[in-house]
Structure formats: C-alpha cells, structure tokens
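Appendix B. Raw example, untouched.
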Amino acid sequence: MFNALPHIASISEYSMASIGEGRSLLVGADARRPLIHFTPPSGWLNDPNGLVFAKGLYHLFYQHNPHSTSWGPMHWGHATSDDLISWTHRPIALAPDKHGLIFSGSAVIDSEDSAGFGSNTLVALFTYHALSGDSPECQGLAWSRDQGEEFTKLDAPILEAPPGITDFRDPTVFWFDGASSSKHISPSGNSPAGSHWIMLLAAGQAVEVYTSSDLRNWAHASTLRDAFADSGTWEMPELIRFEADDDVRWVLAVSLTEGAPHSGSGVQAVVGDFDGSVFVPTDPTFWVDFGPDYYAPQAWNSAPGGRRVWAGWAGNWRDVSPDPNAQWCGQMSIPRELSLIRTGGGLRLKQEPVAELTRYYMDSLVLAGAEISATIGVPLALKAPALDFDLELDSELSSEDAVIIEFRRADKAATLQLDLDRDEIVLTLDSNQIDRPTSPAAYRAPLGLTDGAGESIRVLLDTASIEVFAGASVITVKTPALADPWSVVIESLPSVGSTATLTLNSIGSPR
C-alpha cells in the first residue's frame, strides 16, 4: 500500500465522498476497457480488499480513489458477482473519516455472532492511515447487515500499532478451525485452544499474527521474519489452507514493494505449517508471478465448496501513471483457482483462470497435429479483443525443440517462447506494446518440464493485459489499453507437435 500523501491537506475534505451507484458510471463507449478484468467505474483502483462470498454472491471490495485516476484518498470501492467474471458496481463501502484514510483489509461473515452485531453479519477489518503522528496506522472495524450496501464503523480503532512501528497494516482475517492444523506438528505454546479468529498484519519486514474470539479484542501470538526477501516493505499477508500429501498445508504470501524479478513490486509465497498461532515454513520461498503486474492478491473468504480462489491488482508501484484519455485507472487480474503441485523445487502454487470464464466463450477454433503444422507462420483465423489460447504439448520435448508463439495487435507483438535448453518460458514484448517506459523487454519464468511429460501453455489476452499460465509459473503484464483485436501466429513448433492440440476461444464482454 503506497502511503505518500503530499497532495492531501485534510481528511475532512473527503470524509463523506461518494459516487453513489457505480453501475450508472460505466462508460460503455470506451471500447478499450478490459472485457473480463475488473476495472473501477471511474477513478483509481489498486489492491483487492474484503474478498468474501455470502448469500450467493462474491464480494469484491478494493482500494479506490473516486476523485481522480491517480492514487489519492483511499476508500473501499465495492462490486458483486455470481460468477467472478461479470461484476455489478455497488455504492462506495467505506470512506475516510477522522481516524484516517481507509487502507487495505479483509471481510468475514460472522455466522455465530461472535462480535455481537448479529448472526451472519458482514464484518470488515481494515487499516486506518492517518496523515500525521508517530504511529500513523491502526486497525478499524465496520459491519454491515445488508450485504455491504451500508456499513457502520466502530467509534475507536480495535488495534493500535506497537511503539515505534510506523508500517502496521493490511489485516488478513479468517476463522481458524482447531482441527485444521497439520498432522505432523504439535501446537505451539502460544496457540489458544479450539477455534478462533486469526489476523495477520504486515509490520515493516515482518508478519504479525494475532488471535481473537470476538473480532474486537486481539492478542498477539507470534512474529514471522526472514521468510521473504529483505527488500522494500512487506504488505498484504495472505494465509491459505490446502490439503496436500494427505495432510494439511498452508501457503503464506506477502507482497513486496521492491525486489521482484523485474526490479519492481511483486509477491512471494512459501508453503508451511500453521497451528493457529505460529507459521513455520517447510519449503523454499518462491515468486508467485514472474511478470511486473501482479500485486496484493487476496483469496475469497467462505468460498463455496472450500474452493481457493484469489485475485490481485494487475499493477506495479514502480510506475502507476494513468492513461490521460481514460476515466479509469487500474484493473484486477483474472480470478485464479489455486492448488498445490509438487515440483523439483518443492511444493508450489498452481494458478488457473476460474472455470466460470468458459461461460463467456463466443467462437472457438480447435486444431490438432497436422492441422497446427499447416498454420505455421500464418495468423489463425480467429481474432478478437479478448482471447483464451491453450496449447497442449503431449509428446516428450528435447532441448533442441523450439516452440514460439506470437500474439499480434495493431502492428505490435508479444512473443512467447519455450526455451527448453534453459527450462524456462520467455515473454518478449515489442517496445510499443509495453505500458511503461521502465519495463524490460522480456520476462522469464521457470517452465519445469519433466522427461516424458507434456505441458500446457495457456495465455489470456484482454484489451489491457496478457496473462501466461504454464505449470507453476505465471507471467502477468499489463499493456496499453487498445480495442484492436488480437491475432495468434504459431511461428515454430517441433516435429513432435504432431500430437499437440491447440484451442483458441474468443471471449464476449460480460459488461
């Protein structure tokens, strides 16, 4: 969460700010607006906040400046969806007040009325960021009995920063079931018995863990240091439970303001054990996304069927310049289904676009074997502003084989290459396809092919982004927003491509 505010003179100027029903602010004439990636109705967007599922709807709250397309006085915007793709804008949920701006946080459904606001109340916990003082950040709480249409804030913060701590933000809150810790670890001495609420907070270069029975009163349980890169400020901690290897495993992700593979902001994660109080890493730390534009991911609390789905801000704090010709700035990644897979480097996250995306497929092109070979060097027949490309390589590949795919739009190109000799995937963009002057031309991610195994390469293209999914690796890059259709050219495919399958789907707008 960026926190430099030189242009804001006072909180009171913005305390009652509202844009009303966001649904009326969609600018349908802006053909450059992403079709399948969430954007604000107008103004600025960054981190997703308060992701929660309740009464058949996915709620997406987010960091929002309704007054400008630049970062500024942070509110919580709000949208809802029944399928994670098509969103309805709702009124602004939370606005700044006397305690400060409304920075990032979480939302939960208090089904048992532990906080005393009523059963099944939606409770939001967030960071207040004051414009002055030695400890500018503390945690606030608000609740809603009407699915987030209107919130009531507690008069006073629920958790103050420890002495000397200035960065103390981004509460991640969830309900810990006492039976959900890993089988092979014993509870720490600090872990309260049974089930309870968990809060994770980012504090400088540490993650602080707190516990509570009522969402109002919190006790410090543990501190985690050294698991992530010693660069920038740690933000937006996220802890997600998985079942893997007949056991319970947890993934802790933290966003870093500096030090990512492309030298800007990014996200690291590590697999470990959690006993309701202390997190212990068990596998090597890894990067969640090898592109420049994935930050602050958060998973939906209470998602149906126990599914694990998250989304992040498709942006980078290194360069956040708005488009002077657009009424909006900022987009979310496609929501991603999460699972754990074992690689040569240990357990890793596998991320895939949610299956609901297929509901918006329009036209399809399916080629196999010789049909693909016949198209080498020629644009495929299907073109659209949003495409879902999937290439299944079923045969064993050698280091001499070349797989090169080019994605073209308005005389600009992005080239994807499987470098099998280096066991990596490389996304190279023409200079005029890059959305910022400081971007490198190429982004590299480990491919992790194994002998005798095939590979799936999936690329999601929208008006303002490219997302590449390959095994445990993802590359997310935002591009200039253009309404021009994408086309796909297979430039090179090895002879074993006779067993490959290519599927290309155009995507219709859910707007």
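End of appendix B.
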